[in-house]
Amino acid sequence: MRAALCLALLAFAAPALADDSIADQAQKAFQLYAGGMSQQDFLSAKYGIDLFRNIAGNWVRLNGPDNKSGAETYGADTAKFCGGHGAFTLSSGDPLILTLTTNLAGSNFSQTYTLIGGSTFAEHTDPGPYLEAAGLGRDKTGDQADEQRGLLLSLANGLVQIYRPSADILVLTRDRGYPVVMARCPASPAPATPPASSAEPSSASSSEAKP
Length: 211
Fold this sequence. Notes:
Layout: H1 2-18, H2 22-33, H3 39-42, H4 47-51, E1 57-61, H5 78-82, E2 88-94, E3 97-102, E4 110-117, E5 120-125, H6 127-133, H7 143-156, E6 158-166, E7 169-174, E8 180-184, H8 196-199, H9 203-209
Antiparallel strand pairs: 1-2, 1-8, 2-3, 3-4, 4-5, 5-6, 6-7, 7-8
């Protein structure tokens, strides 16, 4: 009876003994939201060092769940959009700045994301080319065009949080709307190296070519 009571008390106390301390929970929080960085590095504007490492290349925005069926379609259209004008280029020559450049058939534009602190970035869109690409260049006049331009610019600029859960996925969360999930396009295969026999003429054909 006494042994059973002791086992019951131990079972009751086990969850409390297993709880992480506040320090342990804080460390896990920084691992989750700061990409595994230490608190000091996170607060010292070093977040972009790992975030933008090897980020150069073509990426596409994933569509997310299908609106009609509700089925998850994340990643299903990656190859399709990578082969078209939906792909855009990401580059970063500085751990404080990320640049996005479109590859549209017509007018193109760029967006820059500049680190403010932690994982927060200021998003800036080059307005002229952006509005041209949207069909709202300065040749479009009138109150309606002005209102549409203002709305587009308000949606294209602001503060975003940027996370990189894996090497080929980038996530932007905004103060308005749903998160933007981006996927890296697979690299184009390098052209095959021709065999040495076809790349260089044989000694016999070389001698025949001489006068």
